[in-house]
Amino acid sequence: MDYADMSKTADAFRAVATDLGPARLSGLPKGAGSYGYAYLAGAVDQVVSAFNERHDAVVEGTKGVGTTIDSCRLAYQAADAIAEANLGKLLGRLFGVGPR
Amino acid sequence: MNGSPGQVRAAATILTTAGEIGMTSSDAIDGLDVETWEGSAADGFRDRRQKLSAEVDHHGTDLMRAGLTLERYAGEMEACDTEIAAARTAVVQGWDAWRANPIDVTALTLIAKSMNDLSVAAHKREQFAIHAADQLYALIASDSTNLPGLTWPPAGWPPAPSLPTVPIPGGLDGTSPYDPLDVSQGSIGDCYLLASLMALMQTDEGDQLLRDNLRWDPDRGGYWVTLHVDGKEVVYFVDRAQQNGALENGDPGIVSIFENAVNQHLQFNDLNDGGWPADALELLTGKDTKVYEDRTLLGWDWDDIRDDVRDGDQLVAATREGKKEGMWPVEAQRPGPDGTMQTVNVDIVGSHAYTIVSVEKNGDVVLMNPWGRDNGADGGGPIRISEDDFTRIFHQIASTGDGK
Q1: Does residue B118 share a domain with residue B9?
Q2: Separation of CA B213 from chain center
Q3: Could you give the CA distance from residue A56 to residue A47 in angstroms, rounded to a whole number?
Q4: B262 vs B193, B206, B284, CA distance in Å?
Q5: By the 8 A CB rule, do A39 and B133 touch?
Q6: Please, which residues 44-63 of chain B have a Cβ atom closer than 8 Å to chain A?
Q7: CB-based contact, A31 to chain B, within 8 Å
Q8: How confident is the model at residue A59 (pLDDT cuts 50, 70, 90)?
Q9: Contact B8 A29 (CB under 8 A)
Q10: How far apart are CA B84 and CA B119, in angstroms?
Q11: Residue B335, SS3?
Q12: What pLDDT does B18 receive?
């Protein structure tokens, strides 16, 4: 397993989350004066609100994948370190050499 | 008039730009991997990545769809404003002419006609706004239960003039049974969809499934229609039926509503250029569909097909290309006026879809043509053909069953 590769991929997910940032809707014209009718203006308002809720969910989800990859990497590294230490102890006991 | 096409277009641009970012991001997520990572955690990661990519893509396409809705509305608004301005000018000209000559009857006629034009254009403008609002509401209709699993084609609809529509009656989601014998395909090439709808309409369970996917909205004068795409619910708002589309007893009905929803989903060209019954059944039911084929040397898997029919599953069969002017002439049996079975010569339509009504013990297959009553090929209603003829003419059956 390539830990550097895992870090790089986790960073890439965070970068995608950043790239998604401008897709959050803002600055849309408001009101019946823009759309002609209050009914349509209300629909636009509701769609913007619902889409932004979705946007926030997918951005958090994207960041979350990066965070989870990092957590996995740290867990693997910790497990490797423990295994390495235990192997050293075992070798030391068997042959009297090894990391101390 | 209130409203500015420029402002509406500005909103549309913000939405489509956001949609493009979403779709680009989805592609980027698809490409992210740790190639050396294996095992259950890696499998979990890849599964999550796939779902996330789909969610981001769905969100992006919805944003695009909303943008295209407003873009289209801006164009409609401009066209109406032009009509309104022309009508107003004509009214002023009429009044001027009348003032100059109070006995000028043509001036009064012009005024009356222009006033009417003005009213029609203003009403049309408002209807376009209502329709655009309903399409926007449809985009978020299923969010509360299925965030954010909506899928929409990003390319929008063809311009309205190319798809004339007719009104549909309200309250068709009531309790009266749907009858496949009432259905007749119009001039749209969507036999695969109509044969699938008819297959569902054959049973109470199928009727209920169609009702469950349909909700009349009296406030808006239309139906909220749920289709199923890759396991996700997709909701469309339908307040009109396609002109020259499917009918029931000569009028727009339940099949017209689903036809319009699928038209919105696939867009007209894709709806009209044929399709596979398996895809239509999945779109309508949200369930996986089993496809049986006439296998070389092995033939049809009749035991499984009969099991599906016996279990009340819906089956739709597709024909090969017709040998004689696109048709397959066959001898068939159908109930005569006195109820006894009579032998008749009919044409089975090539490259067409038929609803399977039953598969008899001797192998005969009873079919229904979505062309409906009094059609020129078989006259409509159930017809029974031999297993040999079925095997010669048909090459595929889509079933909602599992063959068990």
Answers
A1: yes
A2: 13
A3: 14
A4: 9, 18, 9
A5: yes
A6: 45, 48-49, 52, 55-56, 59-60, 62-63
A7: no
A8: very high
A9: yes
A10: 8
A11: strand
A12: 97
DSSP code string of B61-97: HHHHHHHHHHHHHHHHHHHHHHHHHHHHHHHHHHHHH
Read off the pLDDT of residues B310-326 as tens digits, 9 standing for 90 and up.
Answer: 888 999 999 988 777 77
Contact B180, B202 (CB under 8 A): yes
Is it true that the peptide bond before B148 is cis, omega within 30 degrees of 0?
Answer: yes
For residue B315, the cross-strand partners are: B399
B362 located within any domain: yes
How does the average pLDDT of chain A come out, rounded?
A: 87
How many folded domains does chain B comprise?
3
Task: Write down the H helix ranges in B219-354.
Answer: 254-266, 268-272, 277-285, 302-310
**Exposed, middle or buried, B388 (CB in 10 Å: 0-12/13-18/19+)?**
exposed
From A48-62, B159-173, B332-346, B367-381, the region with the lowest mean pLDDT: B159-173
A30 in B contact zone (CB under 8 Å):
no
Q: Which residues contact residue A46 at a Cβ distance below 8 angstroms, ignoring those fewer than 6 apart?
A: B136, B137, B140
Q: What tokens appear for B81 in the block?
A: 């404003």
My answer on whether B226 and B266 are in the same domain is yes
- Closest Cα in chain B to A42: B133
Domain span at residue B233? Answer: 166-285
Q: What is the predicted pLDDT for the residue at B162? A: 43
pLDDT tens profile B250-289:
889 999 999 999 988 887 777 887 889 999 999 999 999 9
Distance CA B39, CA B10 (A): 48
Mapped onto helix, strand or coil, the DSSP state of residue B353 is strand
Kindly provide the ipTM of the predicted complex, given to two decimals: 0.86
Tokens of B151: 């899928």
Domain locations along chain A: 3-21+30-95
- Best of A62, A70, A74 to mutate (most B CBs within 10 Å, chain B): A62
**Mutation target vs A (from B14, B16, B32, B59; most A CBs, 10 A cutoff):** B32
Q: Three-state SS for B169? A: coil
Q: B379 — phi, psi (to 5°)?
A: 80, -5
Number of H helices, E strands in chain A: 3, 0
Q: Is the pLDDT of residue B403 over 70?
A: no
From B263, B285, B307, give the residue that closes a domain. Answer: B285
